[in-house]
Design goal:
- The protein is an alpha/beta fold.
- The chain has two domains: 150 residues, Alpha-Beta Complex (Quinone Oxidoreductase, Chain A, domain 1), CATH 3.90.180.10; 142 residues, Rossmann fold, CATH 3.40.50.720.
- The strands form three sheets. Strands 3, 4, 5, 6, 7, 14 and 15 form a seven-stranded mixed β-sheet that branches.
- α9 packs across α10.
- The structure holds NADP nicotinamide-adenine-dinucleotide phosphate (NAP).
- The site of NADP nicotinamide-adenine-dinucleotide phosphate has 29 residues, from α1, α3, α4 and α9.
Amino acid sequence: MKAIVCNQFGQPNTLQYQEVATPSPKEDEILISVKACSVNFPDTLIIQGKYQFRPPFPFSPGSDVAGIVLQVGKQRSPFKVGDAVVGFVPFGGFAEQVLIKSSDCFPKPKGMTMVNAAAFLLAYGTSYHALKDRANLLKDETVLVLGASGGVGLTAVELAKLMGAKVIAAASTKEKLALCQQFGADEVIHYQEENLKDRVKELTNGKGVDVIFDPVGGSFSEAALRAIAWKGRHLVVGFANGEIPKIPVNLTLLKGASIVGVFWGAFAQKEPQKSLANIQQLLTWFSKGKINPHIDKTYSLQDAPKALEDMMQRKVKGKIVIDMEL
Ligand SMILES: NC(=O)c1ccc[n+]([C@@H]2O[C@H](COP(=O)([O-])OP(=O)(O)OC[C@H]3O[C@@H](n4cnc5c(N)ncnc54)[C@H](OP(=O)(O)O)[C@@H]3O)[C@@H](O)[C@H]2O)c1
């Protein structure tokens, strides 16, 4: 089979499109024919050796997969050959076939395309876990989303709105902000041109925001925290900006506020029942037409390095997906 392979840590242009051996499923695994795999920011980090773990070489990046079951391991599985599934792997998705644990797979809803299915789990799973389980978001609260047009950011805008919150979206271009408005943002802040803290205070009549959804980091984190409301929750989702912020902790004392970590992958491993319930809720919302991922662009498997470059250069709105049919 063909795959995009990382033989050494480096930039996307060091990845190789090459032939690799097809793996066989162990007891609790299934082999799927990958039909689509979305691109997530961690894919840009794992190929550079900058992610939370470093897979042994050679490996393929890619986590968010949708496809058809080709083979089932010896252990009993809820899936059979030919089933259409959506699932999550630590890496290996930028390939024609991948092994996945049965427990990390879900039946693909009938009305969902393979591309939409691949764009679904990680972004919605993370945002929903963050807003529901980590922020305990209440109806009528105000949420500030940083990097709001990105993969997790845009799903946070959409979900916060669906959960009854008022949403302020912050992003770096007018086009990105316009997309956030299409996905339900009530207010927008162009954080390259406007002062983030002052604008948040203005938009909330001095009260500040109840929840900050922060997948960006850098200097925006402290600016946002300085505009948090009494008993606010600042969700630490990621550091797409490349800089892990050092926050003066007195800011939390002054507002009775919390800084709360979010790690969807670990949550899914440590609290599988809760994670499953979240995913079922998200798939139900999709089936009822209440949520739908925004697909900015699709790429062939061979063009996966270009997809990673586009993400690193901040060119992406919503999700980009490797479509094996291209
Ligand atoms: N904690 C978890 O469980 C979890 C799960 C998934 C992802 N994440 C993390 O969440 C973050 C976002 O992931 P994603 O897949 O949504 O990425 P994405 O689609 O690329 O979105 C990231 C957003 O960050 C902003 N940004 C600011 N500075 C940037 C820079 N130097 N390079 C790239 N983007 C920059 C961009 O918006 P503007 O141009 O508008 O600033 C962009 O839209 C990443 O740090 C990822 O590792 C965490």
